[in-house]
């Protein structure tokens, strides 16, 4: 950091300060350098974040679509089975009614 860089006061929760301190220590940087590095990384490749989110959303939509397709196929089969059963019962009833008593 050069002395020409702007100074900026910031209020942050103590927990976040502790996390930044730990990350700065782990990466052998000052807290300011850690914050600047993290901020710059978010501006570096916004399309990467968008692509990642988009891919995640597509995976969810695909999973839901697959599940919905399976459920619709199951429901369609049950409806067909019930129609066949109803038709069979109606045919059986017609036969019973047509028999002489």
From TrEMBL:
GO molecular function: DNA binding
Coiled-coil regions listed in the entry: none
Domain Arc-like DNA binding, chain residue ranges per copy: 2-46
Signal peptide: none
A Pfam family annotated for this UniProt entry: Arc
Any one GO biological process: regulation of DNA-templated transcription
Annotated protein name in UniProt: Arc-like DNA binding domain-containing protein
Taxonomic source organism: Zavarzinia aquatilis
Source taxonomy: Bacteria, Pseudomonadati, Pseudomonadota, Alphaproteobacteria, Rhodospirillales
